[in-house]
């Protein structure tokens, strides 16, 4: 029997797509080695990125105006939502889908070959298996502690580059990400958003401990820990791939969940998630990633000061709008002219992909 669609991979992207396909009355087969595995990662998004169909109970906390700090303090006039991971997964109900607990080893437009040798057929096959770690592929890493919310009374810190984490100023930088997970718990996470190789968890843990002590934030040593490590590059845009595997991961932030949730209806209905405008934005964002990788560590906070000085609509265009190449290019241009002149030649060469970046310390950081 041939089903309407076979989706390989049941992370947030694949599960959201399967859920929306079921809502359209389609027959769905979902392939995953462990389809009932519970998600553990923390997911967050700008509130205006989330689709209207998402269950409101999947949002655990919302911050009206998160802060960022480079060399200066910034208030971001854009609501930020932290998702309840368990409720998000539960709300993407797969009742009615056929779950196949196996590994897809090869895919084409209409068939999936499983590790056990079986072949499944479908009207469409979608690869939503995410990205595998690979030597030389940039990764995002982070190390966080879950503490009582009273331990961190400051407003949410989307990005805090203040140099109180004990790192050598010449070393690969990292920043503090501090968000409420619910009414009782806050996540304090030392983050390196992209590196090749990225900062290791032990180094991030050391920096986080130093930073918390410098701010008078105590910890017992037995708090729950969150560790983050995943590739931030390697997705290939195309109609047969979805989520991180299909290029929905923002190459300059590491975010993909909100983009995948928002695009799930269109892809479920058979429309392309990759208009010419979306492809242009993707190329611009990849160029922006190369530009940021070219910055010396000491200039990273200054770069983010320039970004958060942008009008909020330009920030939104660069971070969230997949089909706005003019807004994305305008945001990048404004940042270029706001940074010191000595950096512009380096940014230009990196944006155009000219020359080698081997002179940069490994583990360069890119914005979330």
Provide a concise account of the structure shown.
The protein has 368 residues and is an alpha+beta fold. Helix content is 29%, strand content 23%.
Give the H and E element order: EHEEEEEEHEEEEEEEEHEHHHHHH
Task: Give the class from helix and strand content and strand pairing.
Answer: alpha+beta
Query: Taking strands numbered 1, 2, ... along the chain, how are they ordered across the largest sheet?
Result: 6-5-13-14-15-12-16
Relative strand content? 15-25%
Provide the CATH superfamily of the largest domain.
FAD/NAD(P)-binding domain
Count of spatially separate domains: 3
Q: Using the alpha-carbon principal axes, give the shape.
A: globular
How many strand elements? 16
Rg over alpha carbons: 21 Å
CATH topology of the largest domain: FAD/NAD(P)-binding domain
Mean pLDDT: 90
Number of helices: 9
Q: Poorly predicted ranges (pLDDT <50, ≥5 residues)? A: 355-368
Estimate percent helicity: 25-40%
CATH architecture classification name of the largest domain:
3-Layer(bba) Sandwich
Span from first to last CA?
Answer: 43 Å
User: Largest sheet, if any?
Assistant: 7 strands, mixed
Oligomeric nature of the chains: single chain
What is the CATH top level name of the largest domain? Answer: Alpha Beta
Salient structural properties:
368 residues, alpha+beta, seven-stranded mixed β-sheet, 9 helices, 29% helix, globular, disordered C terminus
Structure commentary:
The protein is an alpha+beta fold. The protein has 3 domains: 164 residues, FAD/NAD(P)-binding domain; 93 residues; 76 residues, no CATH class. The chain contains 9 helices and 16 strands. A 7-stranded mixed sheet has the order 6-5-13-14-15-12-16, with helices on both faces. It has a 6-stranded mixed sheet with strand order 8-2-1-11-10-9, with helices on one face. It has a 3-stranded antiparallel sheet with strand order 3-7-4. A hairpin with a 3-residue loop joins strand 9 and strand 10. Helix 1 runs parallel beside helix 4. The protein is globular and about 60 Å long. The C terminus is likely disordered.
